[in-house]
Amino acid sequence: MSTQTVEAAETAAPEAKALRKYELMLTLNPDLLESKLKAKLGDFEDAITKNGGKIFSQDLWGKRLLAYRIGKFKEGIYAVYDFEITPDFIKELNEQARIDVDVMRHILISVPEGYVYTKYKEEAQAMEEERPRKRKMSSHTYPGASSVAPAPVAKIAPAVEAGPAPESQPVDEAALEKKLDEILGDSDLKI
Amino acid sequence: MSKKYIFSTNQKHAPGKRRCTFCTNQLGDVDYKDLPTIKPFVDGFRRIKARYYTGVCLNHQKKLTTAIKRARHMALVPFTS
Question: CA-CA distance, A97 to B78, in Å (whole number)?
Fold first, then answer.
């Protein structure tokens, strides 16, 4: 059995040797338009695929707040690629990321053979799951606010539902105006 | 990260119970993208905590430092605060 595995390894060796697993993370300029962003990411994808590489997973995190300011930017667009390519081309790919004006930061690392890309939760989300909040803000209502606040909501809601019947709308508007005057006339109101 | 891992980072005063948290949870490599895992090993000034305090084994401490430094470079984690 051992000889068989050795043979299999030998036959697969020339292909397996040529390719290695890597991971590329890019932090892009947040002011990039969506079309330009697509083109920019497409460039990197092409650079990988046209040189005999193979992309396993592409993960676009989207805009994210940076931990510190880079240049004048406080946020960046993050993208992560998990791919396979010949080691000869890695230098060129690194250079391409380095030269690019819109790439603020990049990291290109080799990854162990059995590596599977996993998307981790945000820190806040993980904390929330660990110990969920006991109170919710929405459930609490102030006694003073209850007389004023729910009334306009109740008025607006039926108007939206009764879309096909336009006769009822002017009545609602008049009532709303009255209510508004009442609210604005209130001496307790602070603006 | 569906499992709940034990992260007891204050092991300075428990000499008999000093265990590497990564070894006990059978975590091999430390990923620089895994911020909730990295967080307990960084102090209030965002400096990497010494092995003396956290009880992490040397093998994992080396992996942890590279992960934190990579995360810092990509602005996922601040250098100082």
Answer: 22
Q: Residues near A172 by Cβ (< 8 Å), separated by ≥ 6?
A: A155, A158, A159
Of A27, A109, A126, the CB nearest to B75: A27
Q: What is the ipTM of this complex?
A: 0.77
pTM tops 0.95, yes or no = no
Note whether A60 contacts B: Cβ–Cβ < 8 A: no
pLDDT tens track for B2-33: 455 555 666 666 666 667 888 887 778 898 99
Comparing A69-73, B34-38, B63-67, the range with the smallest average pLDDT is: B34-38
- B66 min Cα distance to partner chain A (Å): 11
Q: How far apart are alpha carbons B33 and A9 in whole angstroms?
A: 33
- B43 touches A at CB < 8 Å: no
* Closest chain B residue to the Cα of A124, Cα to Cα: B36
Cβ contacts (< 8 Å) between A27 and chain B: which residues? 74-75
B66 at interface of A, judged by CB pairs closer than 8 A: no
CATH number for the A15-118 domain, one of 3.30.70.60, 3.40.630.30, 3.40.30.10, 3.30.70.1050?
Answer: 3.30.70.60
* pLDDT band, very low/low/confident/very high, at A156 (cuts 50, 70, 90): low
Query: Which of the listed CATH numbers 3.30.43.10, 2.102.10.10, 2.40.128.30, 4.10.640.10 matches domain B19-73?
Result: 4.10.640.10
Whether A70 and B33 lie within 8 Å, measured CB to CB: no
Residues of B in contact with A65 (CB under 8 A): none
